[in-house]
Predict the 3D structure of the following.
Amino acid sequence: MTAFLTRVKFAFWTWFTILFSDRIPDEVAAALVPRMPAPATVAPAPERPVAVEPTAIAMLALLQRDGRLIDFLMEDIAPFADGQVGAAVREVHAGCRKALLAHVTLTPVVDAEEGGRMTVDAGTDAARVKVIGNVSGAPPFNGVVRHRGWLAARVDLPPLTASSRSVVAPAEVEVN
């Protein structure tokens, strides 16, 4: 530990040096701050290329551009009042719906109405129809349609350039 009178001397010396020179005297810093050994240099891990599905990035980019969906999802909405969140959701919903309708044609997977009855036969594609609830035994299953599902009948996304294949939204810089 540094002696009391030495610390008093350092205090006055540092105060005047900061006041007139806008710096801390090197001798004071050297005396009070222990020298740490230089950290071992660690070679940075090589960046692994991210496997990117261009259609997924293009769709995310459209939903961000037109509805600011990514901004909304990444925001912590807990501090906001329900009314503020509701107003934001309306804007995000309108923009995302516009983008979706412009670039994707969706049709129901099944023709039955929600709440109506339907039979799921053996051999039905599990990717198209998900059987939920108290499922036991083998098909056919009789149940109530809870969701008709969505099928992308048409997808028309703008092409991505090679340099933007993983960019969902570019950074924005406003110049005054």
